[in-house]
Amino acid sequence: MSSKEISSDLSIADRLWKTFASVKLTITLLLTLAATSIVGTLIPQNEEPTAYLQAFGELLYRVFALLGLFDMYHCWWFRTLILLLVINIVVCSIERLKANRKILFERHPRFNLARYRQLKSKSEYNENCDAAQLKSLYPPVISRSFRYQRLEKTDTGFALYAESGRWTRFGVYIVHLSVVILLIGGLIGSIFGFDGFVNIPEGETVQTIQLRNNDQKLQLDFAIRCDDFNVDFYDSGAPKEFRSSLTVLKQGEAVFQKDIIVNDPLRYEGISFFQSSYGNLTPNEIILNFTSQATGMIYSKRAKIDEAVTIPEDLGTFVLKRYTRQADFKGHNIGEAFIGVLTANDGSAVEVILPLKFPSFDKMRKGNTFIAVADFVPRYYTGLQVSKDPGVWVVYAGFILMIVGIYITFFMSHQQLCVEVVSRDKENRIMVAGTSNKNKLGMQKKVAKLVDRLASLTSGK
Amino acid sequence: MNSSIILSIITFVYGLAGFLYIFAWIFKKPAAGKLATWVALIGFIGNTTGILMRWVESYRMGIGHAPFSNLYESLVFFAWTIALIYLVVERKASNRIIGAFTMPIAFLAMAYASLKPGIPIEIQPLIPALKSNWLIAHVITAFIGYAAFATSFGINTMYLLKQGRDEEQVIWVDIAKPLTLFIFVTLFSRVLLVGNWAMSFIVALPICLIFYAGVFLARRMPADFKNRLVVMFPEPAILDELGYQMTLFGFLFLSVGIISGAVWANSAWGRYWGWDPKETWSLITWFIYATLLHARMVRGWRGRRIAYLSLLGFAAVVFTYFGVNLLPGLHSYGALGQ
Predict the structure, then answer these.
(1) Structural domains in chain A?
(2) Which of A203, A209, B2, B306 is deepest in the core (most CB within 10 A)?
(3) 3-state secondary structure A63-109
(4) Inter-chain contact B271–A277, Cβ cutoff 8 Å?
């Protein structure tokens, strides 16, 4: 390879590096991310294709699908934008670290006396005492608010240099690092974790769950049993609590038990089970009251699905068929109901609807017997969100770093101070000046306070 | 006397404070300004009492929880935080005109909470998803952030008034400005006031016209009168710095608010980020303010451009707060038990 080719290669890499080292790019990317993110909040994400087709029509559906707008936060171009932002952040940080390395990693900070003398915000005053006295009085006071301090002799006296908070210049890199860590955590989660759900009827045990992002099922290393599910309501009808009693089973043996509610999941071997929904199931057994129209006698009988119940007084047999959450009666929704078939002794069969809301509904049928639901124990299934995310602790570490980093970047600063004492016989001219990389107003106030304190040191004696 | 009555009285106290601040500013009556501070302080104390009483009342009802659980309670807390931040800023900056631009926001928040039909004022029991210790941390941090951004919005509006019109006249900017204003006003009247888009256009049009009539009149005003209005404003550089400090403060709390929300979401639903509209909009807000911070810290932007970005950021805040209710697919705890 000729040297010419190498240099042109380098220049492309250089140009690329320079592009990514630009804060203009950061601003462009941040605003582009903000603008494009809006789209995914206007179009519902991850719905069924038929729902989209109905909402947008054929043409728009195709265009949107091509652009990945139905799962836009995971589509290629949105991910590319995030990737570009990360590269941008990393390159900018490296560039700035390089440019500022003298300021950041200096063990013996350099001070430029002339610069402090030129500061507009400097304060000056006179002291009529021995310069040596000032030399011993000042350092302890200054070290109260400045960690590092150094005394240097000058031609005309001495100068005290002090600084604190040099490390706070790293704050912005901590924030940038936290963003990278967050995304790494997210990546770990999406590679090594999963996200699924499972419905478990009360009393039953499952070992496979349904994954969310594809149609696959996942076999767990353990089984999970729902011993009980309960839902409580407030008087207003709003839900108060959803509670599932879960047992973890290994080789058929119970190894762990926990009642979970929303906000308090079960965690086992890195897999978490969250209470997320529930539903009604057909009760195993109900108690029915059969009232004979002829004698007025009431007979209570237990009934199970598809088991015939013989009604006394030769009134026939009743077979409970099913339970439904929404029964239909002449086009009206009459809510939860049991449905069964009553067969009279002459062989004629009639469907009987027993809505829970209207206990004497069956009277309307005007049959030989009036059937009502006396009692039943509701049976539920619990809907669990099942997820595993080994990246979550990385993400949390990123969260903490981000908060700490933002605090340091915004509210802490690198402050430098110079106190120069110019001595002529017993006359000392003292100059105090300070600089800060941020919050310069705050630094000026701090210097003013310090001047007051330093000036009062000798007057007190 | 219960908390609801106290809080409705506080609405008027804040309204009075805002009125006094504006009066003191326009008619140059320092005495009215001092009175305004006292009224605002009384309002703040009453607001605090109202929130605490509501907390106690919820325990008396047997459904005890911190009063941060629905739109009404969050608006009351929002107003409280604005009043607190403003009173601190007033002390620090020793300028009362800022009150004319921030206390009205506290008043509007309270008035909206009490008067807008369809916002339930009664104390409601917590639904299962909200039963978490993260509720308090999440709501408090998010609303401190929102309130800081609101204050920054007020201060940046002052900055723009003080600086007058742009020196550089660019034709597309002249067209873009009223158009942007119209779009935003339409959006917000849809979000906050009326139930459909056609109505919100009808509402937005006169609001924009009144705004531009005001701008037109302001430009025709005698120069000395105009100057008289803004002369007592803090110096542009100080307004710029103050608005920026508020943005920093808001950004820290917005970040903590989003993060606490993420941690909570992970303990409730098993995911710390799900791109639901509320989450996404809070991130959009975060992106906009992050842009502002980088533009200022690294690119050295100052003044007008930062002020406009700050207005845009606050628009995103308001949309995150209210607008998300319009969007499909809500905060998913609504799905439970359906």
Answers:
(1) 3-98 (no CATH), 103-165+413-459 (3.30.310), 192-281+381-390 (no CATH), 285-377 (no CATH)
(2) A209
(3) HHHHCCHHHHHHCHHHHHHHHHHHHHHHHHHHHHHHHCHHHHHCCCC
(4) no
Report DSSP state, residue A258.
Answer: E
Cβ B272–A395 below 8 Å, yes or no? yes
Asked if residue B175 and residue B124 are part of one domain, the reply reads no
Distance of CA B159 to the CA centre of its chain: 17
Domain boundary among B82, B108, B131: B131
Domains contained in chain B, number: 2
The secondary element (H helix, E strand) that includes residue B143 is: helix B134-163
Q: How far is CA B80 from the centre of its chain?
A: 11
pLDDT in tens, B210-238: 988 888 887 787 878 777 888 888 888 88
Specify the DSSP element, H or E, that contains A213: none
Nearest Cβ partner of A37 from B249, B283, B338?
Answer: B283
**How many whole angstroms separate alpha carbon A384 and alpha carbon A278?**
8
Are A30 and B294 inside 8 Å of each other by CB?
Answer: yes
Per the structure block, which two tokens stand in for A192? 């090594």
State residue A435's pLDDT score. 93
State which residues form the domain around B315.
171-330
Taking the CA of residue B122 and the nearest CA in chain A, the distance in Å comes to 12
| Structural domain contains residue B201 | yes
What's the pLDDT band for B338 if we cut at 50, 70, 90? very low
Biggest CA–CA distance in chain B, Å, is 65
Q: Which of A156, A139, A161 is nearest to A427 (CA)?
A: A156
| Pair A258, A274: CB distance under 8 Å | no
Q: Which of A421, A441, A438, A417 is nearest to A430 (CA)?
A: A421
**Predicted TM-score of the model (pTM):** 0.87
Q: Tens digit of pLDDT for each residue in A405-431?
A: 999 999 999 999 999 999 887 788 999
Tens digit of pLDDT for each residue in A325-358?
788 888 888 888 888 898 888 888 888 888 888 8
Q: Which residue of B has its CA nearest to A272?
A: B270
Mark whether B176 and B310 lie in a shared domain.
yes
Put simply, whether A393 touches B (Cβ < 8 Å) is no
Given B102, B131, B160, the domain boundary residue is B131
Task: Say whether both B127 and B175 belong to one domain.
Answer: no
Whether B333 shows a pLDDT value over 50: the answer reads no
Q: Do residues B180 and B187 make contact, with C-beta atoms less than 8 angstroms apart? A: no
